[in-house]
Amino acid sequence: KVYIANVGNFAGVASKIQRVAADLTGLTDVAIIPGIGAPDPRTVGNPDGSSDTITFGSGARVPNAMVFDSHGNLYVSDSFQGAVFKITNPEGCAPNCDVETFSHDPQLATAGFPPFGANGLAFNKDESALFIANTGDDRVLMLEMVSGTKKVTVFAESLNGADGLVFDKHGRLWVATNQADEV
């Protein structure tokens, strides 16, 4: 099956995850992306010791990238709500799958350009971490999967428009940067 992130909010309808059979027949709605709003503000330190508070304000639901774990669960980034959602066993629950807010963190949102926060997703080999591109912040973030805290940290910076992510068989993380036109 081919899974599709449908950004319906841009057209005035619900944003959702859909799937179609590999022969491109039988479109099925899998789940509606919930409206959870923007994450809490993020405080950023400045070199002079002062700090700025970034407040996010988008209510649009913008599912962007998707990745499956080894158990068949689907993770979906939401670029405007600063979130990662989890759909448990989408093969067995469609068309009305429950959507869990897996992480809703200020690091997953952006005030930068382009205005897309959480974007590309990739698990490392043992699935102990989920890597998340934040396009507008030019970063790759790491979400710990094993600690139970779901802590989001900065893994890499200065990747102009970090977008698509993939690990190769040697464990190297490759990052497509859409603003730099580089990998």
Topology of helices and strands:
Elements: E1 2-6, E2 16-20, E3 28-32, E4 42-45, E5 51-54, E6 63-68, E7 74-78, E8 83-87, H1 90-93, E9 100-104, E10 118-123, E11 129-134, E12 139-144, E13 152-156, E14 162-167, E15 173-177
Antiparallel strand pairs: 1-2, 2-3, 4-5, 6-7, 7-8, 8-9, 10-11, 11-12, 12-13, 14-15
Q: List segments where confidence is low: pLDDT < 50 over at least 5 consecutive residues.
A: none
Largest sheet: 4 strands, antiparallel
Share of residues in strands: 35-45%
Element-by-element helix/strand order: EEEEEEEEHEEEEEEE
Structural class: mainly beta
C-alpha Rg (nearest Å): 16 Å
| Percent helix | under 10%
Indicate the overall shape.
Answer: globular
Strand ordering within the main sheet: 6-7-8-9
Return the average pLDDT rounded to an integer. Answer: 94
| Counted beta strands | 15
How far apart the termini lie comes to 28 Å
- Please work out how many helical segments DSSP would assign: 1
Give a verbal description of the structure:
The chain is mainly beta. The protein is 2% helix and 43% strand. The chain is globular, with a radius of gyration of 16 Å. The relative contact order is 0.14.
Task: Provide a quick synopsis of the model.
With 183 residues, the protein is mainly β. 2% of the residues lie in helices and 43% in strands.
